[in-house]
Design brief:
Beta-galactosidase, Chain A, domain 5, nine-stranded antiparallel β-sheet, 23 strands, 2% helix, 49% strand
Length: 290
Amino acid sequence: MSTIIENDFIRVRIRSKGAELYSVFNKKTALEYMWSGDPFHWAKTSPVLFPVVGALKANTFYHDNKEFNLSRHGFARDHLFELESQSWERVSFILRDNEDTRNQFPFPFLLRIVYQLNNALLTVSYEVINKGDAIMYFSLGAHPAFKVPLLEESSYEDYYLEFNSTEEAPCFRLSPEGLIKNETYSVLHQVSKLPLKKSLFYQDALVFKNLKSDCISLKSIRHSHGLDFSFAGFPYFGLWAAKDADFICLEPWSGIADRVDHNQQLMDKEGIQELKPGLMWSRNWSIKSY
């Protein structure tokens, strides 16, 4: 089942499963900007990462002296969301805790995802409400995959990412299990542009902490089409594509995978968000296509 919102500029489609964005069609450019979800490379298009981002050490965390098992990126992407409200240009989905989620993550919660149009701008908002009576510990991230190349007559290597600040940002190496190693390497060295090539992702994602930029643009040296991706308020950022696939994931995260030497205590996890009972946490990102 899917939901459509649209205006004179863009048409957006979202699946009920995972409240997953899978199409952003710009009516003015007549271009689709989202990855197709071809299962040969990667069957998803924009999964929501909740209540963890990335991998847990041994897929396990401990809280209040209890052991919990949770797979990489959490469970939200695999659950059916409830359609809460819808208008022509806005739609809201919610996921509530249930017996299945509480077996993996011991907190009562409500997760709301809102898609809102404003001309050619799409804003995706997340709200997490702590429905319990104790502090809730969680992470949340986005994982949208954008089509590269946008035009059939261009190639992957014709595209680049442009950061809105000059970056001196090391990448953190990942272990084979997807954990953060105590090693870094240089990708962005006093530059604001990163040329795309498929070999960038042969060793998994590029993981950055505390970028200066809060907007990254996908552009081409061959034409004027692209998109601006804004993500203020997210302290971590990932870039990823499946091996030799025609897309780029722009991933703002409030949270990160476990370090290889992590003690597996949820409250000690790097980047973990703490939410008091009855309160709401929110973040958003947006894309403007052209």
